[in-house]
Structures are given as structure tokens and as C-alpha cells.
Design goal:
By secondary structure, this protein is of the alpha+beta class. Helix content is 42%, strand content 12%.
Length: 470
């Protein structure tokens, strides 16, 4: 989809910009500010001790929601007497704007960093947020930007992807008297072996189920293959980068990796083969299929499953003749046969992390933490977050009726809140270039068409990475 390609392009350019900049050290002229305050406020009210004369400078990253933040600031002023000054960087200029603004006497108190790469540029300014209430409310703390024992960036909006399935079709399968598996619902699929058994048995019974294939087309038209050369490749690369103990973040580990072993290529092959061998479309024709084709196949009920993200609901819902209702659209993780299958969640990521300036006074830091806590835990704040900012906010302060109505957004949040489940971060942010991904996609197409072996795919992936990193 165009939206996702744009998001990925923006993410990559932001990463490159962040890594190229070196934050300059600002002088701290806040040393004579008001005395220390107590810790963050309760989940619904701002601490009465907050100085109503305090001003919080918030440097906003997104121009398209600048007016909404200004409206939020007005409401917050009315409720607390605290001024939030919102300044918004022009599109594509956030890093240079932050570099300029943070050196001023009136420096931003709340700013945004682009994940672990952004933290490396701005770590001299990032306050440790592990004791703040907003961090305590984060449903999946593995998503935060950390270094050692410290927490320096908190995600405030997330997206995620996995295997989307139509539960109406799945229930029809589990009701079959002749099915070969012992489980009775899709929720019991918790590893690759179980997924494979279910999928292959569904293929054998596709006529009885009224479907043309289990999986939607594995779109491999150049430019339409991002679900495989980026999103699917994310899983084996994440597992490999995770083993680099020199880093506590897989994106940074990936950026530092000059040569990949592609150690988990067999896991990639497991799930990729399952897709193409149980598809609605013959392998020979997959090179002519687009993402739109794939999503239409799912929307029309011709298939039971498709790999994509929460952004796909609007596309599914917009297909003429759509029969996939909101109550029947669910997510499964992309299981690959790894040792961590049973504890694996969806692939979840963001480019948006909140940080607080550690070089301003403690009273300003306290006021900033209070404001963020209000925004993501008070009734008014949460209403703005969900209904006007349009965020999928990863905090446990949102009740079911305060969460987005989009069924895939709700599924994403549900998976993030599951006990014993770990979301897979977007390690693909460390991939060398679009050219690298395109070459991997081309190799996958040749593998599907039979002109390359899987060993050729592995060699291409390793060689392309090494060539671009050298």
C-alpha cells in the first residue's frame, strides 16, 4: 500500500538523518529554578503541587496534528493553569529544528526521538523515565528505548503486523468432523508446527470450506513485495541481531552488522513456503500479483489468511463486496518454527518516542511528566488521543470503549497486553537500503518461479548486505 511504503520511506530517511547528526550540548541555565517536586501525578489528576506558573515547551514532530496539540494545550491550561507551548517543526526538518531549539535558553522540555538511533544522537538530553507514571502504564515495556537500566524514550503510538485471519472461516474449519488436528480454535495456534498442520488440512478441505486457498496471494510484483523482503525478513534478522550482546537493541545491532550469517534463513523458508504452497494463486503467477489483489482476495472471503498490518482494515472494509466483518477479523503472530514461537507476539513498531529534557529544571521535568500522564490517562486527554490524534496508544489506561474502533487496532492492543508474550520489534529499520530489499525480493520471486534455489536466496541476501555495508 502506498501509505505503508511512504511510512517506511519516512522511517528510513529519519534514521539516516538521525545518525548523521550530532547533538550539541546546551548550557543549563535552569539551575536556579524552583525546588524539587514529588513524583508523577495519579492516573487521572495532575498533582496539586505542580506550579501553575510553569511553562512546558513541547517540540512537536507531526505538522498534520499541530492544531490538535494546540487545542490540547488550551484545555490543559484551563484545567491546571500550566502552559504548554507547542512548537511544530516543518515537515522533514525535525532533527535540524531540534538541534537549533535545544541549544536555546528556552529549550524544549518535551521532544521526540526516532527510536534507538535517535537516542544515540540525543542521549545527552534524555531524562531517565523509568520512574514516571506514563512508563508504568506502558503495556509492552520492551518497546521503550532503553540503555542499561534507564528508560529514555516512550512510544506513544504504535503499528503492528502479523497473520490476519477470518475467524468465521476458521470456526467452520474447526467444526469439521474429519479435521486432522486436535485443537478447536485459532487461538490455540501457538507455534509453527500447529499452524502448518492447520493450514495444510484446510487446503485439503478448501472446497468444503468454500475457499479457493488458505493464504492470499504472495504479491511479488517489484514494489509490491515489501511484505516479504522487509516485513517477513524482519523476523530472522531480529533473531540474529538479538544474539549480539554488545547492544541492548536489535536496530542498533543491525546497523553495526557488517556481515549477516542469515542464521535463521530456514525459519524464513518455513513460513514463506507455507504461504506459497497453500495460496489461492499458483506459484508461477505470483510475480503478477499486487498487495491490492491479496487484500481483495481476503475481503471477498476467497481465502482465510493474509499477512499484513493493522493499517489493512480500511482497505479490506473498502473492497466492494467485502464479506469479512469486523467481529471476525483477527491476528496471529508470524510463527516460523523458532524456539521462541510460544512466547512470540505480533511485530510492533513505531518511529515516535517521547523524551524529556534532562538539562532543564526538575520542576519543568516534573511538569512535563504530569502533562504526559494527563494526556494518556485522563478522560479528556484520552479522548483527544483516540478520537482526534488518531493514535493506537500502547497504555493500559485506555478501557475497551476508549480504544480505537478499528478491529485490527484492537487486536494489536490485545496482543500487546497478553501476559508472557513479547512483541517483535521492527529490526528492518536497520536494513542497508531499499536496493538491498529490492534485490532480496527479486531473489524470492526467482525462487518461487523455480529459477533459483533457496541456497541462492540465502547467498543473495548475505552478499547484498555485505556489499552495501562494506
Amino acid at each position: 500500500m502506498k501509505k505503508l511504503k511512504k511510512l517506511m520511506a519516512v522511517t528510513l530517511s529519519a534514521l539516516l538523518a538521525a545518525s548523521a547528526l550530532t547533538a550539541c550540548k546546551a548550557s543549563d541555565d535552569e539551575s536556579n529554578s524552583s525546588s524539587k517536586k514529588s513524583n508523577s501525578s495519579s492516573s487521572s489528576d495532575v498533582d496539586s503541587k505542580t506550579n501553575s506558573d510553569e511553562e512546558i515547551y513541547f517540540l512537536n514532530f507531526k505538522p498534520e496534528i499541530a492544531e490538535i496539540y494546540e487545542e490540547i494545550a488550551e484545555v490543559y491550561k484551563e484545567e491546571t493553569g500550566v502552559t504548554v507551548k507547542v512548537n511544530t517543526a516543518a515537515s522533514g526538518t525535525y532533527e535540524q529544528t531540534l538541534k537549533s531549539e535545544i541549544a536555546k535558553t528556552d529549550a524544549p522540555v518535551i521532544f521526540q526521538i526516532n527510536g534507538p538511533v535517535g537516542y544515540e544522537s540525543w542521549k545527552d538530553y534524555c531524562l531517565d523515565l523509568k520512574d514516571t507514571e506514563i512508563y508504568q502504564h506502558l503495556t509492552d515495556k520492551s518497546l521503550a528505548v532503553t540503555s542499561g537500566d534507564g528508560v529514555y524514550g516512550i512510544p506513544y503510538v504504535v503499528e503492528g503486523y502479523g497473520i490476519i485471519y477470518n475467524d468465521e472461516i476458521m470456526q467452520k474449519y474447526f467444526a469439521l468432523s474429519e479435521k486432522t488436528v486436535s485443537i478447536s480454535s485459532a487461538e490455540e495456534i501457538k507455534d509453527f508446527n500447529t499452524l502448518k498442520a492447520v493450514v495444510e488440512d484446510m487446503t485439503a478441505n478448501k472446497d468444503e470450506l468454500g475457499i479457493k486457498g488458505v493464504f492470499a496471494s504472495t504479491s511479488l510484483i517489484p514494489g509490491e513485495d515489501w511484505r516479504w523482503q522487509t516485513h517477513l525478513l524482519n523476523l530472522p534478522m531480529y533473531m540474529e541481531f538479538k544474539e549480539n550482546t554488545s547492544f541492548d537493541n536489535t536496530i542498533l545491532a543491525g546497523l553495526d552488522t557488517k556481515e549477516i550469517n542469515f542464521k535463521y534463513s530456514d525459519n524464513f523458508k518455513n513460513i514463506f513456503d507455507l504461504y506459497i504452497n497453500n495460496s489461492i494463486t499458483d506459484k508461477a503467477l505470483l510475480g503478477s500479483k499486487s498487495v491490492d489483489d491479496s487484500m481483495a482476495e481476503f475481503a471477498l472471503g476467497n481465502v482465510a489468511m493474509v499477512q499484513n498490518g493493522n493499517w489493512a482494515w480500511s482497505q479490506i472494509n473498502g473492497v466492494d463486496g467485502n464479506v469479512t466483518t469486523s467481529e471476525n477479523i483477527k491476528f496471529l503472530p508470524i510463527y516460523t518454527g523458532s524456539e521462541s514461537d510460544s512466547s512470540q507476539g505480533l511485530c510492533v513498531g513505531t518511529e515516535n518516542y517521547l523524551a524529556i529534557n534532562k538539562n532543564v529544571s526538575e520542576s519543568k521535568q516534573k511538569a512535563a511528566a504530569d502533562f504526559l500522564n494527563w494526556l494518556f490517562s485522563s478522560e479528556k486527554g484520552k479522548d483527544y488521543v483516540t478520537n482526534k490524534l488518531g493514535f493506537i496508544a500502547p497504555f493500559d489506561t485506555f478501557s475497551d470503549d476508549e480504544k480505537p474502533s478499528d478491529p485490527l487496532a484492537r487486536e494489536l492492543l490485545s496482543w500487546m497486553e497478553k501476559d508472557g508474550v513479547t512483541s517483535i520489534p521492527w529490526a528492518f529499520a536497520s536494513f542497508p537500503s531499499q536496493e538491498f530489499k529490492d534485490n532480496v525480493g527479486a531473489a524470492l520471486l526467482e525462487y518461487v518461479q523455480g529459477s533459483k534455489s533457496w541456497d541462492d536466496v540465502v547467498s543473495t541476501t548475505k552478499d547484498q548486505w555485505k556489499n552495501e555495508k562494506s
